[in-house]
Specification:
The chain contains 14 helices and 13 strands. With 511 residues, the protein is α/β, with parallel strands linked by helices. A hairpin with a 3-residue loop joins strand 11 and strand 12.
Length: 511
């Protein structure tokens, strides 16, 4: 009898343990990244005037808002190469914008895109393009499916399993992302105002001091905020889908930008304006089986320094997946959390045909930059931006007439300083360079030393210039693509460009 009872107890215990394991596996959280292209922290919850973002503001109130989240680089392909691998772009030779698209740069051994760490752990992965079967709604409510990496993904394989929202609930747990393009220059930006109720008032927006205070500047900035509001509307649609499909109680929602705003001295420039992104993490409420992790403080605003590559490591960690050995991102939530960062590192290299080499480090108060090619002007030719950024047209026009002064005039300088240092608390627009100030030499030396150490530790591949044929190719391509437009447009094109949305400016000829 005792033997029978012992055997029965053993069987029951084994069953219960097995059931618990299965239950634990079923209770692993879904993870959804919502990625806005080219979007800085211009949301109501970050204090931006003239933008109404009720959905994201409420998500921040119910979740956790990170005040100091930054990307590694300020342009899409290099930034996405970083946060999708948890590696600095410069460490995997992905630092040049638009490179290695022809099978010439596989990821190093031990480095993968994060979906290929999720899948062996039983997660389905998705890059959502299709949100609804309603053809009318689908014209606006859709994802781009963007990847845009500067490395070669293995041929014959796919980095994501699904692209349709309606398939997600049958494939849990999942890691999914959806990309929205409204804040990226182009058709979605130009028409964003058509999809929202309130539209930003150009007279009331706050513009950086390095731009001329002009109707064009204010119009472009207002349309950017309209695009942000359109993104907010799309996020509301996503959150409604989560509730509809009963996924809201077990899905962690992460909202971020892929890099800073698409403006002159923003996108492609490793200042705060090009690297600072919004980051909101919402942990599901009301699910006792999914308690919030250590260091997550609901309803709070965190000042912790966060790098975008940390999102990769942290997303894996909250799914119960240990951080890969080579991953450079740091876990900032949960039992695996690492000590907070003291510094954030970044930079830029070639962007299209435009060759720069800049490295930067930031702590909570100061940003230091080192420019390898100071002899090259800030507005070195980039034909994509010459075509797409009305503020650049305005700058060139005002400068030709001798009407630029102060910080905007500095953007037209023929050279740039070898080093830059900014006190971000006193000078948030980064216009007062303190690199040569005797009072700030200790700060500069401390940051410069940290930057040197980082470049050595990651074996920064950007220290070796590209083969000259590569920038030559991109220069020739840019000439083919953009030259006719640049030659044939009217001189005052920037007054009525589509990027101004509804805020076109009357030209003198029309007066």
């Amino acid at each position: 009898m005792y033997r029978f009872l012992f055997a029965l107890s053993f069987v029951l215990l084994s069953y219960l343990c097995h059931s618990h394991d299965v239950q634990a596996a079923d209770q692993r959280p879904n993870i959804l990244w919502i990625i806005a292209e080219d979007m800085g922290p211009e949301l109501g919850c970050y204090g931006t005037p003239e933008v109404k973002t009720p959905t994201l503001d409420q998500l921040a109130e119910k979740g956790m808002l990170f005040q100091n989240a930054f990307t590694v680089t300020p342009v899409c392909s290099t930034s996405r190469s970083s946060f999708m691998t948890g590696m600095y772009a410069m460490a995997i030779d992905a630092q040049n914008h638009r490179s290695h698209r022809e099978g010439t740069n596989p990821l190093p051994e031990g480095v993968r895109v994060i979906t290929d760490w999720f899948r062996p752990a039983g997660y389905t992965t998705a890059n959502i393009k299709n949100l609804t079967n309603d053809k009318k709604l689908a014209k606006f409510y859709k994802g781009t499916g963007k990847t845009d990496w500067n490395f070669t993904y293995p041929k014959g394989k796919q980095p994501f399993d699904l692209k349709d929202w309606d398939e997600l609930k049958q494939h849990q747990p999942f890691y999914a992302q959806i990309n929205f393009s409204e804040t990226h220059r182009g058709g979605a930006w130009n028409t964003s105002h058509e999809h929202i109720g309130y539209q930003a008032d150009p007279a009331k927006v706050e513009i950086p001091s390095y731009y001329p205070d002009h109707a064009v500047t204010r119009g472009v900035w207002a349309q950017y905020l309209n695009a942000v509001m359109a993104v907010d509307k799309k996020v509301a649609f996503i959150l409604d889908l989560l509730k509809r499909d009963k996924l809201d109680k077990n899905t962690i929602v992460v909202f971020l930008g892929d890099h800073g705003r698409a403006m002159p001295r923003g996108k492609q420039w490793p200042y705060d304006s090009g690297l600072h992104i919004p980051l909101i993490i919402y942990w599901p409420e009301g699910n006792a089986d999914l308690p919030a992790p250590a260091h997550y403080e609901r309803g709070q605003k965190s000042e912790q320094l966060i790098s975008s590559i940390d999102l990769s490591a942290t997303s894996l960690a909250v799914a119960g997946i240990s951080k890969p050995e080579k991953m450079q991102g740091q876990v900032f939530l949960g039992a695996q959390a690492e000590p907070p960062r003291e510094y954030l590192f970044g930079g830029r290299d070639r962007g299209d045909e435009t060759v720069f080499h800049i490295r930067t480090v930031r702590d909570k108060q100061y940003r230091y930059l080192r420019n390898k090619y100071p002899e090259r002007p800030f507005l070195q030719i980039n034909r994509y931006k010459e075509k797409s950024y009305p503020i650049i047209g305005l700058l060139r026009d005002l400068h030709s007439r001798g009407e630029l002064t102060g910080p905007p005039l500095k953007l037209m300088a023929e050279t740039r300083p070898e080093e830059e240092l900014y006190d971000l608390k006193q000078d948030p627009w980064e216009t007062n360079n303190l690199a040569d100030s005797p009072d700030y030499q200790k700060v500069k030396q401390r940051l410069a030393s940290a930057l040197n150490t980082w470049m050595e530790e990651i074996d920064d591949k950007g220290r070796i210039p590209e083969d000259p044929s590569i920038p030559e190719y991109w220069d020739e391509r840019a000439i083919r693509v953009y030259s006719d437009n640049l030659k044939n447009r009217p001189k005052d094109w920037f007054l009525k460009d589509a990027a101004l949305g509804p805020y076109k400016v009357e030209s003198k000829q029309d007066d």
